[in-house]
Every structure is written in structure tokens, then in C-alpha cells.
Amino acid sequence: MAESLPVRPGQTLLDLGCGSGALGILPHLACRELASVLVDVNPLAARCAAANARLHGVTRIVIAICSGSSGVAQGRFDLAVTNPPIRAGRKTVEEIFRGAVSSLKIGGWFYVVVRVAQGGWTLSGNLEEIFQNRAELITRKKGYLVFAVQKPGESPATG
Fold it and tell me: Residue 64 pairs with which residues in a beta bridge?
């Protein structure tokens, strides 16, 4: 997914369920002016993500221990990413998707990477239902799918 993620200077990125931080950290290597928040429920994962950020010299990053986006400002992010914890169950995955909707600015994009063998095609339908917008297949590579879905609505400037 990292190579499919279009980032620009000044954007804000949210990594939901960050694990070791790869999806939230790698975009900084291409765009140092990116600002990111990485969240995970697991304190060990958060410590690992913090160590990886330091290792790669990424400083415009905040790492938090929280469930989904519960500790994150709503409507703040341009991009959100996840490699959802499929084995945690559908309810958990859908909570992450709903957290992305609330965290994104109108017009913001949510990117999801999932294995085909772990229900990737089904998840695209869940994305469309939760976002009320079409999920686009961005990449299909080595048994993985990357979907993107945009948060719909009118921007405050036009509406």
C-alpha cells in the first residue's frame, strides 16, 4: 500500500491499528512535510512504531494507544490507512472503518490493504456501506488488495 499512497506536503495522515508503524511511517520517507498520527490498542505495537519512527528519523508523528479513532480529533485528517486486524473479527474491522469516516475531512481518502484470502472482496462492500461511496480497487498484488474510498459530502467552502 505504501507505494500506492499519494501524499503531499502539509497533509495529515492517520494510521488506524498501526502495529509496527509501516503504513504511517513509510510515506514520510517520500514526503517529510507530512504529519501523522498512529494509533493502536496494543502498547507494545505503539512502542515498536515509536522505535521505527526514530530509526527512520520521522519527527512529524504522534503515536497513541487507543481503540480505533476514539482518542483522535474528528474531521482532521486528509488520509487514513489501515491493514485491519481481520482475526479480531468483523465488528472490530467495521469499528476501524467507522473511525476512519469520523476522522477524515470531507473529501479525505481512506486506504485499506487486505489479503484476498482473508475476505478482501467482502471488505470492499463493507467499506462502501459505511462510507456511502464507491470503494476503488487501487492495487492487486501477490494476494493483497488495496482499496481506496473517499469521504463524501460538500466542503464547507462550497456548501
Answer: 39
Per cent of the chain over pLDDT 90 is 69
Other Cβ atoms closer than 10 A to 54 = 11
* Structural domains counted in the chain: 1
For residue 135, the 8-state DSSP code is: P
Task: Give ∠ CA 18-76-145 in degrees, rounded to 5.
Answer: 45
The Cα–Cα gap between 62 and 55 comes to 15
Nearest one of 110, 33, 100 to 72, comparing CA atoms: 100
Domain-embedded: residue 2: no
Alpha-carbon distance of 7 to 28, in angstroms, equals 9
The mean pLDDT of the chain is 90
Domain containing residue 63: CATH number = 3.40.50.150
Rounded to an integer, what distance in angstroms lies between the CA atom of residue 4 and that of residue 87?
A: 24
- The full length of the chain comes to 159
Mean pLDDT of 97-105: 94
